[in-house]
Amino acid sequence: MNTLTLAANGMIFTEPETEVTQPLAALAGKVILQDGYTLRSFLSMVRRYPDFQAISVFIPPLLDECAKYRDSGCVTDMLTHLELVKRVEMIGFPGEPRFNILCALTGRYREQEQELRLFQLDSLLDMPVRLGLLKHSVFGDSVNIMEFETDYTLFEFIEGIAWEFGFQRFPEHCSIRG
Known about the structure:
By secondary structure, this protein is of the alpha+beta class. The chain contains three helices and nine strands, in the order ββββααβββββα. The protein has one domain. Helices cover 19% and strands 30% of the residues. The longest helix is centred in the C-terminal third of the chain and has 16 residues, at 154-169.
């Protein structure tokens, strides 16, 4: 798996000082976040590589909304960072068991998880973003969750962040009505 460095300025590098030239071909690459990577870095990346905006219907409205906010200082002291978490859930008992695998962006205050829907977007743009552990739960057990080191692909990273903000901020896209 190719390793990609996501830079704080929104650029993607395959190795030091070699920028990705075919961003869609890089979607399966393993991501590493450069120090100083923030939600604003993510927005700069999807602006720099506009093909990524087609990955999720949530990205264009997120870009439009964030364009209204000031250029720096968009933080809250109620979070230490934002963290992308991969969740693997085994569900369906009784009945046909199945796995759900998803990535979600959460807020963290030290070791405590915080729901991002409780925060205004303009207080999150300059918060540090980190890659978290894989959390595995079996049949809805929220007490005995196992945690593992994991890798994230560029696609998982983009889709996980877009889904989190889209689900919370643009619920008309999540409607089950046709």
